[in-house]
C-alpha cells in the first residue's frame, strides 16, 4: 500500500479524500518534526518513533567493492508496540470492527495486561491501606506505653517523696524524744550545796 492507497482507505472513514489527505499529511508532518528535534513520538498500540545516532564506521561500495569511510550520522528508528507485534504474529486476532491499534482492539493480550495492571493496582492500594492501619496501631501503642511509663515514673517519684518526708518526720520525732529524755542540768544542785556550806560556816562562828 502506497500513500495514495492509504488516503483512499482513510477516505471511506473520514468522508472525503481531502480530509483523509490532510489528516495523513498532518500526522506524518508532526512525527517527522518531533523526531528531527530528537524527541520520541509514541503512539499507543502502534509503536514509537525516535532519533538514534550512529557512530562513524567503514563501509563498502556494493558496485566497486572499495571501502568507504561513513561519517557519524543520525537516523530515525521505529519500534513497534506490543499490540502491533501480537497482531502481526497472529492476524486472526485482528478485530472485525474498530481500530486494530486502538482501545477497541480486544486482541487478547492487551486486555489481559490491562486487567493484570488493575488487579496489581488494587493489591497495591490494599497493601498501602494495611500498612497505614499498622502504622496507626503502632503509633497508638507507643503513645499508650509512653503514657503508662510516664504515669509509673510520676507515681514512683511521689512515693519516693512521701518516703523522704516520712523519714524526715521520723528523724524530727526522734530528736524531740531524745531532747525530752535528757536529764535536767545540775546547776541547781550546785547552788544548794553552796548554800549548805555557807550555813555550816555561819553555825561554826
UniProtKB/TrEMBL annotation:
<feature type="region of interest" description="Disordered">
    <location>
        <begin position="86"/>
        <end position="205"/>
    </location>
</feature>
<feature type="compositionally biased region" description="Basic residues">
    <location>
        <begin position="172"/>
        <end position="205"/>
    </location>
</feature>
<comment type="function">
    <text>Might have a role in establishing the nucleoid structure of elementary bodies.</text>
</comment>
<dbReference type="InterPro" id="IPR010992">
    <property type="entry name" value="IHF-like_DNA-bd_dom_sf"/>
</dbReference>
<keyword id="KW-0226">DNA condensation</keyword>
<dbReference type="InterPro" id="IPR009970">
    <property type="entry name" value="HC2"/>
</dbReference>
<comment type="similarity">
    <text>Belongs to the bacterial histone-like protein family.</text>
</comment>
<dbReference type="InterPro" id="IPR000119">
    <property type="entry name" value="Hist_DNA-bd"/>
</dbReference>
<feature type="compositionally biased region" description="Low complexity">
    <location>
        <begin position="104"/>
        <end position="113"/>
    </location>
</feature>
<protein>
    <submittedName>
        <fullName>HU family DNA-binding protein</fullName>
    </submittedName>
</protein>
<comment type="similarity">
    <text>Belongs to the histone H1/H5 family. HCT subfamily.</text>
</comment>
<dbReference type="GO" id="GO:0030527">
    <property type="term" value="F:structural constituent of chromatin"/>
</dbReference>
<keyword id="KW-0238">DNA-binding</keyword>
<dbReference type="GO" id="GO:0003677">
    <property type="term" value="F:DNA binding"/>
</dbReference>
<dbReference type="GO" id="GO:0030261">
    <property type="term" value="P:chromosome condensation"/>
</dbReference>
<feature type="compositionally biased region" description="Low complexity">
    <location>
        <begin position="136"/>
        <end position="171"/>
    </location>
</feature>
<dbReference type="Pfam" id="PF00216">
    <property type="entry name" value="Bac_DNA_binding"/>
</dbReference>
<dbReference type="Pfam" id="PF07382">
    <property type="entry name" value="HC2"/>
</dbReference>
<feature type="compositionally biased region" description="Basic residues">
    <location>
        <begin position="114"/>
        <end position="135"/>
    </location>
</feature>
<dbReference type="InterPro" id="IPR020816">
    <property type="entry name" value="Histone-like_DNA-bd_CS"/>
</dbReference>
<dbReference type="GO" id="GO:0005829">
    <property type="term" value="C:cytosol"/>
</dbReference>
Amino acid at each position: 500500500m502506497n500513500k495514495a492507497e492509504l488516503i483512499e482507505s482513510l477516505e471511506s472513514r473520514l468522508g472525503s479524500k481531502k480530509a483523509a489527505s490532510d489528516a495523513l499529511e498532518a500526522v506524518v508532518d508532526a512525527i517527522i518534526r518531533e523526531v528531527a528535534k530528537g524527541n520520541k513520538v509514541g503512539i499507543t498500540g502502534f509503536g514509537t518513533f525516535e532519533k538514534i545516532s550512529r557512530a562513524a564506521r567503514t563501509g563498502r561500495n556494493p558496485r566497486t567493492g572499495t571501502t568507504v569511510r561513513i561519517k557519524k550520522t543520525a537516523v530515525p528508528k521505529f519500534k513497534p508496540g506490543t499490540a502491533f507485534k501480537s497482531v502481526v504474529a497472529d492476524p486472526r486476532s485482528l478485530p472485525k470492527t474498530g481500530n486494530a491499534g486502538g482501545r477497541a482492539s480486544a486482541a487478547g493480550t492487551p486486555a489481559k495486561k490491562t486487567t493484570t495492571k488493575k488487579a496489581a493496582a488494587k493489591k497495591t492500594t490494599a497493601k498501602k491501606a494495611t500498612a497505614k492501619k499498622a502504622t496507626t496501631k503502632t503509633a497508638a501503642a507507643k503513645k499508650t506505653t509512653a503514657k503508662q511509663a510516664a504515669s509509673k515514673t510520676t507515681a514512683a517519684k511521689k512515693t519516693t517523696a512521701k518516703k523522704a518526708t516520712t523519714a524526715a518526720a521520723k528523724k524530727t520525732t526522734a530528736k524531740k524524744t531524745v531532747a525530752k529524755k535528757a536529764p535536767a542540768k545540775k546547776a541547781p544542785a550546785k547552788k544548794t550545796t553552796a548554800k549548805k556550806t555557807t550555813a555550816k560556816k555561819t553555825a561554826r562562828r
